[in-house]
Every structure is written in C-alpha cells, then in structure tokens.
Design brief:
It comes from Pichia kluyveri (Yeast). This is 5-hydroxyisourate hydrolase. Homotetramer. Its EC number is 3.5.2.17. InterPro entries: Hydroxyisourate_hydrolase (IPR014306), Transthyretin/HIU_hydrolase (IPR000895), Transthyretin/HIU_hydrolase_d (IPR023416), Transthyretin/HIU_hydrolase_sf (IPR036817). The chain has 116 residues and is mainly beta. It has a single domain (4-112), classed as Immunoglobulin-like, CATH 2.60.40. The chain has one helix and ten strands, in the order E-E-E-E-E-E-E-H-E-E-E. The chain has one helix at residues 70-75; strands at residues 4-10, 15-16, 21-27, 32-38, 44-45, 49-50, 61-68, 85-91, 99-106, 109-112. The strands form two sheets. Strands 1, 2, 5, 9 and 10 form a five-stranded mixed β-sheet that branches. The chain has a five-stranded antiparallel β-sheet with strand order 6-4-3-7-8. Strand 3 and strand 4 form a beta hairpin. The longest helix has 6 residues, at 70-75. The protein is globular.
Length: 116
C-alpha cells in the first residue's frame, strides 16, 4: 500500500463513490509531480499510476489530492456545485508511515479529515 491513500463516500446515497479520477501532486515552486488513479468499487485509491515517487519514502512538503467529481455526478444524472475538490495538506519534517485522505461528498457540499 502506498504511503498516501484516499477514499470517497457519497453522503447522499450512503455508498462509496466508484470510478472517480484522483490526482496526487507534490507541490513545489517550479513544478508538480503527479500520479493518478480511479477509485475502486469501494471508493478507495490504494494504488497510484504514473511516476512512482509516491511509493517511496515521503518528502516533507505540500501535497494536493484533486478529486474530479463532475463526471461522477454526471454519470449518476445528478448536478453538482463542485466540479472538482482540491484537498491540500502538509507533511512535516518527520513524515508518518501513512496518510489517508477521506472525502465525504454530496452534490452541494463536502468535508474531509485526516484518516488513519
């Protein structure tokens, strides 16, 4: 399992949000390194595709997970106010072994927290 994972629950239906594109970036002044994944049937990302920097030891710094929510709601024939959700978080000088980013999502609102 990579050191950063995420999970989306659709709070309107009470079900996991499957097949949502997620992008994970390490933010710097000059560039962003990105990996991508689709949430699985349980709404989880447990494996990232692309540059495999995320499977190595984490670097301190600022990261972003972008959840592309527009297509998810469109496939379900539902409108949404948020076409995507960006969650930006900071990893300190002594990184933990694992960071989990849950997203509780509805058409017109969302919340997040640091999971375990």
């Amino acid at each position: 399992m990579p050191p950063i994972t995420c999970h989306i629950l659709d709070t309107t239906t009470g079900r996991p949000a499957a097949n949502v594109l997620c992008e994970l970036s390490y933010l710097t002044e000059s560039n962003e390194t990105m990996v991508k994944a689709l949430t699985n049937s349980d709404g989880r990302v447990t494996n990232w595709e692309g540059n495999h920097w995320v499977t190595e030891e984490l670097k301190p710094g600022t990261y972003r997970v972008k959840f592309h929510t527009f297509d998810y709601f469109q496939k379900m024939d539902r409108e949404t106010f948020f076409p995507f959700v960006d969650i930006v978080f900071q990893i300190g000088e002594v990184p933990d072994n694992h960071y989990h980013i849950p997203l509780l999502l509805s058409n017109y609102g969302y919340s997040t927290y640091r999971g375990s």
